[in-house]
Amino acid sequence: MTILILTGAGISAESGLGTFRDKDGLWTKYDLNEVATPEGFARNPKHVQTFYNARRANCRGATPNAAHVALGQLVSAREDVILVTQNVDDLHERGGATGVIHMHGELARALCAACDHRWDAPDEMSVDDPCPACGTKATRPDVVWFGEMPYHMERIYDAMAEVDLFVAIGTSGNVYPAAGFVTEAKQNGAETLELNLEPTDARGLFDAGRYGPASQVVPLWVDEVLGR
């Protein structure tokens, strides 16, 4: 049975990394047009770099929780599990998962807006950082901003056509194209499961749902899949 798992910010919330759309989420504290769009970066790149430097520091100080560890065990134990995340943190990797598909990029990576070169980001990025490939001072975080196309979409949709089970964990189900994955999976004949703190607006699209803290719900589900 091939399993495709999509994770969102909710899986990292118990590790101290903020969610986005909850009442106290990041987008209630920041204007997303200023920190998460190409236009915002063009207007005030220093402000954007400062925001992501803080997020990078927050990520470095976070520890994978039991949900990350459980998924790491699942990925290690089975070759037929595909792990896709909307998160830009590295907690899945630090929880033991390999081959994670980061559809929204990674905080730990940098991107040159001039030549598209990518490299490992330093802890602190600056508007004066030159691109190591072309020398242009146009470096930015390698994360997908609003209005930009998520990464690896062809690979994800190819995988979606083959899966037997689609599982959404800790994601709001409000942001496309990821919000459409459950419908895509069902059209391809897959079973669908939602694991979340509470039912989302998309709950009716899933065949089943389990609810509670990710650090409790996810390990229990993984134990069932692995027959433990």
From TrEMBL:
NAD(+) binds at residues 8-27, 86-89, 170-172, 196-198, 214. One of its GO terms (molecular function) is NAD+ binding. It catalyses: N(6)-acetyl-L-lysyl-[protein] + NAD(+) + H2O = 2''-O-acetyl-ADP-D-ribose + nicotinamide + L-lysyl-[protein]; N(6)-succinyl-L-lysyl-[protein] + NAD(+) + H2O = 2''-O-succinyl-ADP-D-ribose + nicotinamide + L-lysyl-[protein]. Residues 1-228 form the Deacetylase sirtuin-type domain. Binds 1 zinc ion per subunit. Zn(2+) binds at C112, C115, C131, C134. InterPro entries: DHS-like_NAD/FAD-binding_dom, NAD-dep_sirtuin_deacylases, Sirtuin, Sirtuin_cat_small_dom_sf, Sirtuin_class_III, Ssirtuin_cat_dom. It is found in: Cytoplasm. Pfam families: SIR2. The keyword Hydrolase applies. GO terms for cellular component: cytoplasm. Keywords: Cytoplasm, Hydrolase, Metal-binding, NAD, Transferase, Zinc. It comes from the Bacteria. The active site is at H104 (proton acceptor). It is an enzyme of class 2 (transferase). NAD-dependent lysine deacetylase and desuccinylase that specifically removes acetyl and succinyl groups on target proteins. Modulates the activities of several proteins which are inactive in their acylated form. 2 residues (Tyr-52 and Arg-55) present in a large hydrophobic pocket are probably involved in substrate specificity. They are important for desuccinylation activity, but dispensable for deacetylation activity. PANTHER family: NAD-DEPENDENT PROTEIN DEACYLASE, NAD-DEPENDENT PROTEIN DEACYLASE SIRTUIN-5, MITOCHONDRIAL-RELATED. Belongs to the sirtuin family. Class III subfamily. This is NAD-dependent protein deacylase. It comes from Maritimibacter alkaliphilus HTCC2654. The gene is cobB.
